[in-house]
Every structure is written in structure tokens, then in C-alpha cells.
């Protein structure tokens, strides 16, 4: 690198353009025998900074999302569920357009059909495509809300949960809620209503939500807001986790 290049690279560093500075020498070498228009060359130079920055920001969003493990939509075996989701539905939610429209995705069905896989895969894709996401189980969510309420900070905590583009709430209905918990759950749904997307998993059909929430009126109000703009996917079939065991004859039916 000649003196002039070193000066330019140093100024790039001062401006915080570290990726561009690091790639400047090889970029200039590549341009020697090229006859591309100047505007295209400038675009390529900017991409040296932009692309790594976007990748780094995506990894940061994923890291702070709380998503517990890495799952992708490509890994989801659409042929395993015996019903409840079509290829068309799968393709539609995979576009993430529901996030822009502030719509919800409700994933219903018994354990082992891939509800959490779909949820976390959509959350991971959202993070990699410029959106913020946050994952939390229903019980952990209610614990945090109860703690904040007891400390007089419930309003601030609800605002915090309203910030992500998409909130992932796992395992709704695996344990019945108290009247107080049901009221808090309604508040989180109401706070995000028409302001941000929710992806939610539950092993209980909507007809059982009155039992889950110990109050038919609160359950109705919650579902009214949750379902107003939503895609409901009710998976049917055998547990995906039993698939490989069934193949080798470990499980008898």
C-alpha cells in the first residue's frame, strides 16, 4: 500500500469505516484492469463496509433475541404433520410479510409437531433480515411481569415488550393461569395489538382458553385482540421427536 492509500485508509478508520479500510488495497488492485463505470466502482467500495456491517448487526440482533437454539425454515419437514399447514401457507409466512403488516401467527397442536421449531426459525430469519425479535416462554413472561408489577414498574416492562418487531411467546396453556396471571397476559397482548407481531405456540385449542385463563371474559378479550390480524396454523399428526425412533423400531404402536 502506497503512502496515499495509507492516508485514505487511515481516514476511513477515523470515520469508523474499518471494513472499507481493511479491504481498500485489494479493492484498488482489482480495479486496475477493470473498465466498470465509476459509479459501479463506488458502489462496490461501499459494499465492503455495508455487507459486513449488516451481517454483524444481524448476529447482534440474534444474540439479544433470547432464541434458545438455531433452527431454520429449510430444516422444517413439511411432510411430517398430517395436516394444518399447506405449502402455500408455509411459503407465505416464510416471506415475513406478516411482520410488516403487524399480524400474528398462532401455532396450535400437541407436543412434538414442530411448533417451536417454526417459531424460532421465523424469529431467526427475522433477525437476519433487519427485524428485531424476542423469545420467551409464557411462564417466564408472566414471572417478569409479576415482578415488575410488584416493583411498580409494570408500565415500563410492558413498553419494553412492545419494542421488538416480533415477540415469540412459547408454551401458552401448558399450565393453567391464575386470575392475576391471565390479566397480565391480556395486558401484553393488548399492548402489542396492532403495534407489533406476535408468534405464539399453544397445545390447547381456543375452546379451552377459558379454562387456561380461569376467566371466560378475559380469555375472550385476549383472543379477540390476538386473532383479529392473525394466521392460525393448527398442526396435526404424530410427535416429530418420535420419528427417528419409529424408523428403527424403538417405539411400538
Question: What's the gist of this structure?
Answer:
The N and C termini lie far apart (71 Å).
Keywords:
253 residues, alpha/beta, Rossmann fold, 2 domains, 12 helices
Give your account of this protein's structure:
The chain is an alpha/beta fold. It has two domains: 3-64, no CATH class; 73-243, P-loop containing nucleotide triphosphate hydrolases (Rossmann fold), CATH 3.40.50. It has twelve helices and five strands. Strands 2-3-4-1-5 form a five-stranded parallel sheet, sandwiched between helices. α9 (179-192) links the parallel β3 and β4. The protein is elongated and about 75 Å long. The termini are far apart. The mean pLDDT is 89.
Structural class: alpha/beta
Instruction: Indicate the CATH architecture of the largest domain.
Output: 3-Layer(aba) Sandwich
Provide a count of the helices: 12
Strands across the major sheet, in which order?
Answer: 2-3-4-1-5
Termini gap = 71 Å
Instruction: Tell me the major beta sheet.
Output: 5 strands, parallel
CATH superfamily of the largest domain: P-loop containing nucleotide triphosphate hydrolases
Low-confidence stretches: none
Number of domains: 2
- Per DSSP, what share of the residues sits in E-state strands of 2 or more residues? 5-15%
Using the coordinates shown, work out and report the CATH topology of the largest domain. Answer: Rossmann fold
Mean pLDDT: 89
Helicity level, as a percent range? 40-55%
Shape: elongated
Number of distinct beta strands: 5
* Gyration radius, rounded: 24 Å
CATH class (first level) name of the largest domain: Alpha Beta
Q: Which sequence of SSEs, written as H and E, runs from N to C? A: HHHHHEHEHHEHEHHEH
Amino acid at each position: 500500500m502506497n503512502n496515499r492509500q495509507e492516508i485514505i485508509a487511515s481516514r476511513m478508520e477515523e470515520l469508523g469505516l474499518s471494513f472499507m479500510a481493511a479491504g481498500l488495497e485489494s479493492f484498488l488492485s482489482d480495479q486496475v484492469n477493470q473498465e466498470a463505470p465509476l459509479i459501479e466502482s463506488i458502489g462496490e467500495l461501499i459494499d465492503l463496509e455495508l455487507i459486513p456491517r449488516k451481517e454483524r448487526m444481524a448476529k447482534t440482533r440474534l444474540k439479544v433475541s433470547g432464541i434458545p437454539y438455531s433452527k431454520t425454515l429449510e430444516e422444517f419437514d413439511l411432510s411430517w404433520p398430517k395436516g394444518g399447514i399447506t405449502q402455500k401457507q408455509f411459503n407465505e409466512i416464510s416471506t415475513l410479510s406478516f411482520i410488516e403488516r403487524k399480524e400474528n401467527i398462532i401455532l396450535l397442536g400437541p407436543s412434538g409437531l414442530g411448533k417451536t421449531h417454526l417459531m424460532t426459525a421465523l424469529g431467526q430469519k427475522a433477525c437476519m433480515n433487519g427485524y428485531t425479535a424476542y423469545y420467551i416462554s409464557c411462564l417466564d413472561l408472566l414471572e417478569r411481569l409479576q415482578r415488575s408489577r410488584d416493583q411498580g414498574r409494570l408500565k415500563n416492562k410492558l413498553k419494553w415488550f412492545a419494542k421488538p418487531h416480533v415477540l415469540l411467546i412459547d408454551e401458552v396453556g401448558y399450565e393453567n393461569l391464575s386470575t392475576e396471571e391471565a390479566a397480565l397476559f391480556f395486558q401484553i397482548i393488548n399492548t402489542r395489538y396492532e403495534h407489533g407481531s406476535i408468534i405464539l405456540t399453544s397445545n390447547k385449542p381456543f375452546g379451552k382458553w377459558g379454562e387456561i385463563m380461569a376467566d371466560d371474559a378475559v380469555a375472550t378479550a385476549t383472543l379477540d385482540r390476538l386473532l383479529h390480524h392473525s394466521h392460525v396454523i393448527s398442526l396435526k399428526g404424530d410427535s416429530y421427536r418420535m420419528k427417528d425412533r419409529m424408523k428403527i423400531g424403538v417405539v411400538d404402536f
